[in-house]
Amino acid sequence: MNVSSLLKELILHACTFPKLHKRNPAERRIVEIIIDQLKAVESIPLQLPHPLDSRAKRVVKTLLAEPGDERTLEKLCEDCGASKRTIQRLFLDETKMTFNKWRQQLRLLHGMQRLAAGEKVTAAALEAGYNSTSAFISMFRKQLGTTPTRYLHGGVEQGKGVKSISP
Predict the structure, then answer these.
(1) Is 49 helix (H, G, I), strand (E, B) or coil?
(2) pLDDT on residue 44
(3) Antiparallel, parallel or unpaired: β 162-164 and 2-4
(4) Measured between alpha carbons, how far is 6 from 3 in angstroms, rounded to an integer?
């Protein structure tokens, strides 16, 4: 989740309390503010649920083996024994994501793994299936609120005051 500087400091301050006491007005207000701030926090979607249906699983297996695979869903469906519409329905029903959103998430996560393994942004972007480094950076920023380099180094995005905390 994206944690503001304020929320981070409130949590750190609350951790200094030996024990939280509801009767202590100052401690109660700190906790109430933390709760209010947590409600406003933007969650970073870093999960990639997998479908259970065997036909959809074949599509997933293919893309997990090569996240940068450029084939259309129609072409991928030729090897899985289901129509494009069936796979689209299965992904939506079983992952709560459209196939395109799921594939986008897979590519982003794969790119993040490559970056964490020490690859340069350009190499990670291309291997994950992005057509350009700027497309990868743009999607990364859209999903995580910061650039890949700042995310990996725990940096703060200029002007936003938001620090990304990785799980």
Answers:
(1) coil
(2) 53
(3) antiparallel
(4) 8
